[in-house]
Write a structure and sequence with these properties.
The protein is an alpha+beta fold. The chain is built from two helices and six strands; from the N terminus they run ββββαββα.
Length: 140
């Protein structure tokens, strides 16, 4: 059985193309996947995995995925060999994505922005409160 599940973040915005033969959409991107364990005294390693998706899934990738987005990709590993114009052989191993799940939700991203705004507002509130309560004219 050839099945792989990866959790990682896009290293850059996906590259979207359409095939010339039948105008099929294809999206390519690289997923940065952290290894689960690290050797003692070392930082965790990261693998950079090439992902390819086709058709409607590629359209979805084009619409919703950007650099830094965290996703889960479920698919299969594929190897291929091709010869360039200089007659040199090239070997490529990539994951053909069959399913994608979004890990970062829109609300998570909004909450992060709101948290930053909320933190600023909270600091402003504390400053105002301190100014109000610092006087000698307190009624008690």
């Amino acid at each position: 059985m050839n099945k792989v599940t990866l959790l990682g973040r896009l290293t850059k915005d996906p590259e979207i193309k359409c095939t010339e033969a039948n105008n099929t959409t294809v999206a390519k991107f690289t997923l940065a996947v952290n290894r689960k364990f690290a050797k003692k005294g070392e930082e965790k390693q990261t693998d950079f995995i090439n992902i390819v998706v086709w058709n409607k899934l590629a359209d979805t990738v084009a619409q919703y995925l950007v650099k830094g987005k965290q996703i889960i990709v479920i698919g299969r590993i594929q190897t291929r060999v091709w010869t360039d114009k200089d007659n040199s052989k090239h070997y490529v191993t990539e994951v053909i994505g069959e399913e994608i799940e979004f890990v970062d939700s829109k609300t998570t991203q909004e909450n992060t922005k709101n948290d930053e705004t909320s933190e600023t507002t909270q600091n402003e509130v504390e400053t105002v409160t301190e100014d109000i309560l610092s006087g000698d004219d307190l009624p008690f």
